[in-house]
Amino acid sequence: MTNTEQDRWSRVKGRLRTSVGEDVYTSWFARMDLESVEQESVRLSVPTRFLKSWIQAHYAERVLTCWQAEMPEVHRIDLTVRTAMRCAAPAKEAPAPLDARRAERADGRPAQELRAVATAPVSASHDALGGSPLDPRLTFGSFVIGRSNTLAHAAARQVAEGRRGDAVMFNPLYIHAGVGLGKTHLLQAVTWAGNSGSERKVLYLTAEKFMYGFVAALKTQTALAFKEALRGIDVLVIDDLQFLQGKSTQAEFCHTLNALIDAGRQVVIAADRPPSDLESLDDRVRSRLAGGLVVEMGSLGEELRLGILKSRVAAARAHHASFDVPEPVLDYLARTITHNGRDLEGAINRLLAHSKLNAQPVTLEMAEREVRDLVRPQEPKRIKIEDIQRVVARQYNVSRSDLLSSRRTANVVRPRQVAMYLAKTLTLRSLPEIGRRFGGRDHTTVLHAVRKIEALVSKDTALSEEVESLKRQLQE
Fold it and tell me: Fewest CB within a 10 Å sphere: which of 101, 138, 313, 457?
């Protein structure tokens, strides 16, 4: 590259900096290099496909205009990715033209060729933004519907079938359930269906990937680019939100959530607990999450477990035509493996492996032997603080709002203390969280209530029987 070309490139960068501002320039153009200048074209390079795609979609005309101010004869810019361009592999990436003669329309906006990048399939968005991998098996077609997941499935379908510009019905859509009950399956199904033949961009990220992407953007000084890219998504799908950690990451998630919802974009979120139980998240985030449609996916009933088993057997038979599981074996598995859907799939995989490797048919005796470690004792019912408050209020003939209020009359103080004691002994919630759920009280107030009831129960037989009765009602 000659000194003249380098000088021109320096002046072009100066124009770009003035045109877009310092922050945008630093995020998008600071790592752009000049490779060569020919008669009517200029060859530029950037280090990542993401930068290349974003510049093509949003700044093509700006780059071309700045070059034409320096060299009027330039009508084309070839933008390449340095790692791909300098690779020794024979298949090199073809330059993407930013051609002024094809780029402008009558209204001055970029033509369809340049905007195509912004409406690329989900795979391009996933590659560029570090989207979490998608499992091709997790589609609506393979999702088995039962009583416990009907509403969640219907809401997810509604989101997936929406079109760009449609009014958003549920925003955010928040799905919560225990491990292995189908949350991830539904979220990935939304992503697959939402991008299939649609002009929308649907991005699926786990909370871990979101954190990694944000931290990496901070380190490489592309945080603005990361934010702009996320907020350009039509449907943002976040899985395992309970793992979102770090004040700055949570703040960024809150800003992204607000920006997308305010712009009429769809947000779909899954976690293992309702928004009110996400203690590590800021109150504003919890409030915004609870303001959409919150749906719980319950435990799998026996009929649904049987349906899942039959679905998995049919899927296995597509690759192993001779594989067969007799009806009594399926009934046995559906009756005894009650924990979650992943255990059911694991059971079918074990039977398939044993049947194929040992060339033996599947029998009830074999199934009992192979899956005995998957037959777990029934988990105790998960008790919620709201349930405790409701049952205690009914027992003592007060309202739930009385329990949360600042009233100090005797007929309210004792039930409130009993409810706090039960919340501490029957749930895994911390003292500060219990205090927050009882009208924003300090954790020391909760500790005092717990110790008070513990002392009274050991001496007052009537109160002890009342507390045991309340425990039985909550655990049934």
Answer: 101
pLDDT tens per residue, range 7-27? 888 898 888 888 888 767 777
Largest CA distance in the chain: 97
What DSSP character marks residue 142?
Answer: G
- Residue pair 420/449 in contact (Cβ under 8 Å)? The answer is yes
- Is 128 among the domain residues? no
Q: Are residues 354 and 400 in the same domain?
A: no
User: How many structural domains compose the chain?
Assistant: 4
Residues 6+ apart with CB under 8 A from 274: 174, 176, 290, 294, 296
Are residues 76 and 99 in contact, defined by beta-carbon separation less than 8 angstroms? yes
- 365 & 389 share domain: no
> What DSSP designation does 110 have?
B
- Phi–psi pair at 110, nearest 5 degrees: -60, 145
The one-letter code for the residue type at 348 is I
Q: How many CB atoms lie within 10 A of CB 465?
A: 11
Over 90: is that where the pLDDT of 427 sits? no
CA atoms within 13 A on the CB side of 353: 8
| Backbone φ and ψ of 223, nearest 5° | -60, -40
> Encoding tokens for residue 282?
């800021």
- 19, 2, 11, 29: which is closest to 67 by C-alpha? 11
- Owner of token pair 């009208």: 439
Question: Which sign, positive or negative, has the C-alpha torsion 218, 224, 229, 233?
Answer: positive
Burial class of residue 371 in the structure, from the number of CB atoms within 10 Å of its CB (0-12 exposed, 13-18 middle, 19+ buried): buried
Per-residue tokens: 463: 């109160």
Closest-CA residue to 272 (of 376, 382, 155, 138): 382
**Tokens representing residue 217 in the block:** 């953007």
User: Is 365's pLDDT higher than 70?
Assistant: yes
In a domain, 131, yes or no: no
Model confidence at 378, in pLDDT bands (50, 70, 90)? Answer: low
**Residues marked as binding for ATP?**
180, 182-184
Cβ neighbours, 10 Å, residue 272? 16
As given in the structure block, the two tokens for residue 73 are 């004869």
Mean pLDDT, the chain, rounded, equals 80
Residue-wise pLDDT for 2-12, tens only, equals 677 788 888 98
Residue 323 in 3-state DSSP?
Answer: coil
Q: Which domain holds residue 16?
A: 3-81
Whether residue 286 is found in the same domain as residue 309: no
Model confidence at 146, in pLDDT bands (50, 70, 90)? confident
Residue positions in the annotated binding site?
A: 180, 182-184
